[in-house]
Amino acid sequence: MKTLPQISEAEFEVMKVVWKYAPISTNEITDYLVKTTSWNPKTIQTLIKRLVTKGALTYEKHSRVFVYTPLVDKDEYIGQESSSFLNRFYDGDISAMLSAYIDHDKLSDSEINTLRSLLTKDPKKGGA
Amino acid sequence: MKTLPQISEAEFEVMKVVWKYAPISTNEITDYLVKTTSWNPKTIQTLIKRLVTKGALTYEKHSRVFVYTPLVDKDEYIGQESSSFLNRFYDGDISAMLSAYIDHDKLSDSEINTLRSLLTKDPKKGGA
DNA sequence: ACTTAAATATTACGGTTGTAATAAAATTAT
DNA sequence: ATAATTTTATTACAACCGTAATATTTAAGT
Questions:
Q1: Where are the domains of chain B?
Q2: Cβ-Cβ contacts under 8 Å, A79 against chain B
Q3: Are B47 and B10 spatial neighbours (Cβ–Cβ below 8 Å)?
Q4: Rounded to 5 degrees, what angle do the CA atoms B64, B67, B68 make?
Q5: What nucleotide is nearest B68 when CA is compared to C1'?
Q6: In the record, what terms sit under GO molecular function (chains A, B) (predicted)?
Q7: Which of B10, B14, B12, B6 is nearest to B48 (CA)?
Q8: Which residue in A24, A52, A61, B29 has a CA-CA distance of 20 to 30 Å to A97?
């Protein structure tokens, strides 16, 4: 498996926007994040640039503007981070993790039910 | 809620040892981690020191040696990290997260069953 | 009391991150 | 063509991190 680039927390916020709206220009990314964060546009520029350097984003020039597309797949990235999280914090024991969420986050009955139905679905259907 | 100190990934490995064996001396921590990691003892010293500075550990002097005890609660820390992870990566949607684990990590039937039974336990019993 | 050994403390150093400011290049308007 | 504006590129800088090395303090032996 190819190794995905290291994406910092702030950079990840940028990635989320690009994943959602790509292809998207610098200004569009900036407009969006200026509204949803407390970041200065200059900061957002820097984050975008770093993501390009890291190989997480690529772009096409449309005359003066750059229009970005993700180079890393969202599900793959999140899946990898999730596995790594599970290993570091719960030694890979997913039951231990779920237990901790149930205790710590005090899941409501309806959340519990949703989870249960998730686990009850016939895995034969829906598979690849 | 009091804010827990920021603990880095390498520091967290040290914390795990202290959580497990506290009260524990510098040398005991070092011996343990030298075996389970590729770290130089000096590196481990540094990590311990930083954890003290950050308020994650405290110690008692027993003549020349320091004997450490955690100042942050393991479950509390992990719970907080877990909530934060869930929010950042899954927008707080625990079903989405579990779904992703099921898909990405290809959970076995027995794992699925364990999870299901976890969710089926009567929450009335065992509560505080 | 001195020397030695063991433990702790201080210093180092490059990479990453958060957070921008300044500089340069490219377009657009005049 | 120039000037003004917009976009991108370069530079900055401190905190945090991984990874130690060196220095100092303190206890133990002799």
A1: 9-70, 85-121
A2: 100, 103-105
A3: yes
A4: 145
A5: C8
A6: DNA binding
A7: B14
A8: B29
- Which B residues 47-66 have CB within 7 Å of strand D? 47, 50, 61, 63-64
Chain A contact for B10, CB < 8 A?
A: no
The per-residue pLDDT string of chain B (128 residues; one tens digit each, 9 = 90 and over) reads 678 999 999 999 999 999 999 999 999 999 999 999 999 999 999 999 999 999 999 999 998 899 999 999 999 999 999 999 999 999 999 999 999 999 999 998 899 999 999 998 755 554 44
- How many Å from the CA of A108 to C1' of C20? 43
Q: How many whole angstroms separate alpha carbon B95 and alpha carbon B113? A: 16
Determine the topology of domain B9-70 in CATH. Arc Repressor Mutant, subunit A (1.10.10)
Instruction: Report the distance from CA of residue A74 to the C1' of nucleotide D7 in Å, as an integer.
Output: 28
CA of B64 to C1' of C3 (A): 18
Which residues in chain A are closer than 8 Å to B122, comparing Cβ atoms? none
How much is the pTM? Answer: 0.91
In Å, how far is A78's CA from the nearest CA of chain B?
A: 7
- Three-class HEC string of B91-121: CCCHHHHHHHHHHHHCCCHHHHHHHHHHHHC
Q: Which secondary structure element, helix H or strand E, spans residue B67, and what is its range?
A: strand B65-70
**Closest Cα of chain B to A53: distance in Å?**
23
Q: What is the CA radius of gyration of chain A?
A: 19
Select from B75, B104, B118 the Cβ nearest to the Cβ of A82: B104
